[in-house]
């Protein structure tokens, strides 16, 4: 891979060991994927932030990077950590876990991150423009950025996104290149996807059937919140990092002639029903968990509307970013959620937090992403339902 003189000096350690470590990682990645050069990125989003997922080895790596002088050179946000940074004790997160998590947070702060612990960076100020190159990890955010925003990013891991944040560049391969972003399959939706759960099931089913592809989802127009759910579930069941949806920035560039030549995939009610049966338990769950991906302000409003009659019969946890929480506080939504017995949990999510340690053994949610990862990472059982049916 070609390196400029400045990049060669960085690799040789002339600008510090942290930058040399980051450059070695990017060069190795570039060699593996046949990249010819590095390109500048406008922003980064780094995963691998929760102590639950990175453990002591991850914490030690971050400490070492900080000691070597690592600092971010481009706009950088980070994924959810493992606790609510303000109310962790009140919610019941274990003290020892919180201590380790706060050390991780200190490391990211030392490298230049503000409080941006969210899987939806595009809702809290890190929203790239069409055509901009970025280096993002977090599969749902990657897929949303490529598909809906028209940005360009590969499916980075936490370490490679961290390296890009330090260097400000990423290897030029994969979805950074225009010809690699063409749709490969036409998905014909033969059923109604009239609610949040159906959209999530659709994404998961498409991902499961295609594995690695760039699907075009035909004749389904969705809101930003539902596109967020679609991206998250599709990325959970596959390696898909980009899709086309009716009305999205990328879809507008694809002509009818090209669509007719694509390989076809049909999704019907039977497909969604089988997906539901695979992911959901039948019995009641002890806790309602919403916000995977993180809830938007509009989704918090919806919860207040449909859950108006909820009186705390079951524990209700609503996961969102700190920035969205502040907006919700100003508009009275936090008070409304609390009035119906709910808790808004900031900075973390149901996937990367230690659910069982805070007394959660089963959850009801509208997210197929959560239904896939929560049993895997926390051992909890998951019941799927639409938002309205959860509170009916």
Compact summary:
This protein is an alpha/beta fold.
Architecture overview:
- This protein is 43% helix and 14% strand.
- The chain has helices spanning 5-11, 17-33, 51-67, 88-91, 95-111, 139-149, 158-167, 196-210, 224-236, 256-260, 269-279, 297-306, 322-330, 333-339, 368-378, 387-390, and strands at 38-40, 43-46, 75-78, 135-136, 169-171, 185-189, 215-218, 244-245, 263-267, 287-290, 315-320, 342-346, 362-365, 381-384.
- The strands form four sheets. A five-stranded parallel beta sheet has the order 12-11-10-13-14.
- α15 (368-378) links the parallel β13 and β14.
- The radius of gyration is 21 Å and the shape is globular.
- The N and C termini lie far apart (58 Å).
- The mean pLDDT is 96.
CATH architecture of the largest domain: 2-Layer Sandwich
Largest sheet report: 5 strands, parallel
List the strand order in the largest sheet: 12-11-10-13-14
Strand percentage lies at: 5-15%
How much helical structure, as a percent, in the residues? Answer: 40-55%
CATH topology of the largest domain: Aconitase, domain 3
Number of domains: 3
Uncertain residue ranges: none
Total strands: the figure is 14
Number of helices: 16
Which structural class fits the helix and strand makeup? alpha/beta
CATH class of the largest domain: Alpha Beta
* Average pLDDT reading: 96
Order of helices and strands: HHEEHEHHEHHEEHEHEHEHEHEHHEEHEH
Shape, per Cα inertia axes: globular
End-to-end separation in angstroms reads 58 Å
Relevant CATH superfamily of the largest domain? Aconitase, domain 3
Radius of gyration: 21 Å
